[in-house]
Write a structure and sequence with these properties.
54% of the residues lie in helices and 7% in strands. It contains 15 helices and 5 strands. The protein has a 3-stranded antiparallel sheet.
């Protein structure tokens, strides 16, 4: 309910700080009264997924109900990691108050990453356009994560300064990129059995589908069935999947609750998603 406090603070310019209950009352009164000269208000709500975790979802309902009042002059723009969040996690009464406009954002491609990295590296003469392009291409092929691209550039810059080099070379980029993906966990993933690798891929696929790192065993079974069907192989039994999860848990590749919870057991990867993708790519693609 702290969101009520923050919304009211932003609306009154921080002049009045109230409790959550009092803030809710003021907000409800404001959006219920007509004010012809009132300037429209836009709220940007990030990490909407977190607000879906409450049982009653009253905060969500109020937040989306207010804009439906013609006199409110309120616009809510919400950002979530899950593309189908309303269908998955929202109550029907909340969904009934949502608008129909959705924008899906894909991971950054190589060109976009190159623009981001170039803008951040302005003034650093040690980076040439060819090396920035190589970093962007390598990261885009795995995850499109701008933070990972900037991490690689940071390591390159620090190493270049330490070694008193005038510029970063093509070989420097390849070396740092390889070092970032040579951890013992990545090496172990490459030695896992096919079904163990399938389960790791299932966890990655579920994350890409929902945008949420934690899931339950039931969803992973569904993703395993999809992977096996695409490869034309037999789906492992539930008992076999339990054993696979247990072994991966013992190696700390995944984190899990007590498996006595059955299909509702919570699971999450204990390594980066791009690390799994990197480890499971054919060696020829990594050259």
């Amino acid at each position: 309910e702290q969101i009520y406090v923050e919304m009211w603070r932003l609306l009154n310019g921080g002049k009045e700080k109230l409790s959550a209950e009092a803030s809710l009352k003021r907000l409800d009164e404001r959006f219920a009264k007509a004010a012809p000269k009132r300037v429209p208000t836009v709220f940007l709500v990030d990490e909407l997924d977190m607000l879906c975790k409450t049982r009653k979802q009253t905060v969500l309902y109020n937040m989306f109900e207010w804009p439906s009042r013609p006199q409110a002059k309120l616009i809510i723009v919400a950002i979530a990691n899950t593309m189908d969040l309303p269908e998955r996690d929202m109550d029907m009464r909340v969904i009934s108050r949502l608008g129909f406009n959705r924008l899906n954002f894909d991971p950054y491609n190589q060109v976009q990453l190159q623009m981001i990295v170039t803008s951040r590296l302005q003034g650093l003469q040690v980076f040439q356009s060819d090396e920035i392009e190589l970093v962007s291409r390598k990261v885009a092929s795995l995850s499109g994560d701008a933070r990972r691209a900037l991490d690689i550039c940071r390591i390159l810059a620090e190493r270049c300064e330490r070694e008193k080099k005038e510029r970063i070379t093509h070989q420097d980029v390849l070396k740092v990129h390889a070092e970032m993906f040579r951890s013992p966990k990545i090496q172990f993933i490459r030695t896992c059995s096919k079904m163990e690798q399938f389960l790791l891929r299932a966890l990655v696929n579920e994350f890409y589908r929902t945008g949420i790192e934690e899931t339950n065993l039931r969803n992973i079974v569904y993703r395993m069935e999809e992977l096996c069907a695409s490869e034309g192989i037999e789906v492992p039994t539930l008992h076999c999947i339990y054993n696979i999860c247990s072994r991966l848990s013992s190696q700390r590749l995944i984190l899990s609750e007590d498996y006595r919870k059955g299909l509702e057991t919570k699971l999450r990867l204990n390594v980066g998603f791009e690390d799994v993708n990197f480890a499971l790519r054919p060696q020829a693609d990594l050259e």
